[in-house]
Amino acid sequence: xxxxxxxxxxxxxxxxxxxxxxxxxxxxxxxxxxxxxxxxxxxxxxxxxxxxxxxxxxxxxxxxxxxxxxxxxxxxxxxxxxxxxxxxxxxxxxxxxxxxxxxxxxxxxxxxxxxxxxxxxxxxxxxxxxxxxxxxxxxxxxxxxxxxxxxxxxxxxxxxxxxxxxxxxxxxxxxxxxxxxxxxxxxxxxxxxxxxxxxxxxxxxxxxxxxxxxxxxxxxxxxxxxxxxxxxxxxxxxxxxxxxxxxxxxxxxxxxxxxxxxxxxxxxxxxxxxxxxxxxxxxxxxxxxxxxxxxxxxxxxxxxxxxxxxxxxxxxxxxxxxxxxxxxxxxxxxxxxxxxxxxxxxxxxxxxxxxxxxxxxxxxxxxxxxxxxxxxxxxxxxxxxxxxxxxxxxxxxxxxxx
Length: 402
Ligand SMILES: Cc1cc2nc3c(=O)[nH]c(=O)nc-3n(C[C@H](O)[C@H](O)[C@H](O)COP(=O)(O)OP(=O)(O)OC[C@H]3O[C@@H](n4cnc5c(N)ncnc54)[C@H](O)[C@@H]3O)c2cc1C
What we know:
Layout: E1 2-9, H1 13-25, E2 31-34, E3 60-62, H2 65-73, H3 75-92, H4 105-113, E4 117-119, E5 123-125, H5 128-143, E6 148-151, E7 156-162, E8 165-170, E9 173-182, H6 189-199, E10 202-204, E11 207-217, E12 230-233, E13 236-242, E14 248-252, E15 257-261, E16 271-281, H7 286-300, E17 306-309, H8 310-314, H9 328-339, H10 343-346, E18 348-354, E19 360-361, E20 374-376, H11 386-400
Parallel strand pairs: 1-2, 1-9, 2-6, 9-20
Antiparallel strand pairs: 3-5, 4-12, 7-8, 8-9, 10-19, 11-16, 11-18, 12-13, 13-16, 14-15, 17-18
The structure holds flavin-adenine dinucleotide.
């Protein structure tokens, strides 16, 4: 069996940056990098392969991501890793910060009266060509590093710890490693949850974040003032408001969830799109119930993401009306109508949107789990976002190589 110092499982955003950091700062480590998807430039499916969902997402690098990382690891580590990540990003993107605006004051007043907090989202916008250029830079570094083994097109399905070593089973056989950095992110959320349960480290798996993706002509949402903000209340999340292009729903039958992207220039339109998500409590069953609901809605809508007029659901004429889990929707849309007039008469929505995240685990400031030597980064650590995944990948790499 091949033995490694560090195995990185998942070469999405977190995994790619973990590998890059190891190649530069800890080149003596013997490393293997796994991914279900194809190797660089040969992507097979949207959420899998080198850099994970970055090449197919909305390409917005939200700067408030860094705060989420700071909360976990402390400001110092988060800042210095962010500087490192930025030094790569700025080689291929001008990194012009898009400062977010607030909605018009009348709108702000209305939503605040309804107990929503408004979170603005400053960001950098990325387009496919700069993601391609970044892929080139990182992949060349990794290919020129003798201590790196690539294991793409290969699914890891089991990790156990035995006598201080991790045994990693994948479609192409078993390997062992002293340390593991788990970065299976967006498409690996269910497997990560199973793994955490097997390892006995789950702290909480109580919520399914389910909802819809709304789309409305910008002329019907002038009060938003082209903000990219998110409106947050205990039971609801609206946003971020996205003004680049129209919604492109993608069925991910293997994951049984739908995802949406909207930053493609060729679909540029005057529309605004946003997610409307409501977390539902299912004690100890959040991930399983998310999957059940996604499957059910897929079946109800003939195995695909469906676009519907909002008024269908208001009139109880939507297939969705028969699912008790979506009972909150008509009332919520009435509430949204009170500050976004026209959503009911002019809006469209796409069903379902399941906002996946693995079960919660305890993670140290070093991004190490309760299993010694098992590190997590990106969505595996419960933190969403491209920038946070990149920064956490670097931090996990530094700590795993100690
Ligand atoms: C459509 C879409 C749009 C988005 N838009 C934005 C945005 O604009 N801004 C933003 O900040 N965030 C956005 N996100 C979220 C962001 O992309 C993720 O939070 C981020 O990519 C997470 O990084 P990660 O490294 O944790 O996981 P990922 O980037 O998802 O990478 C995980 C990798 O692990 C691999 N993998 C999974 N399971 C296994 C296994 N068992 N064995 C081997 N490999 C495995 C996958 O193939 C994948 O390459 C978007 C997500 C989607 C889906």
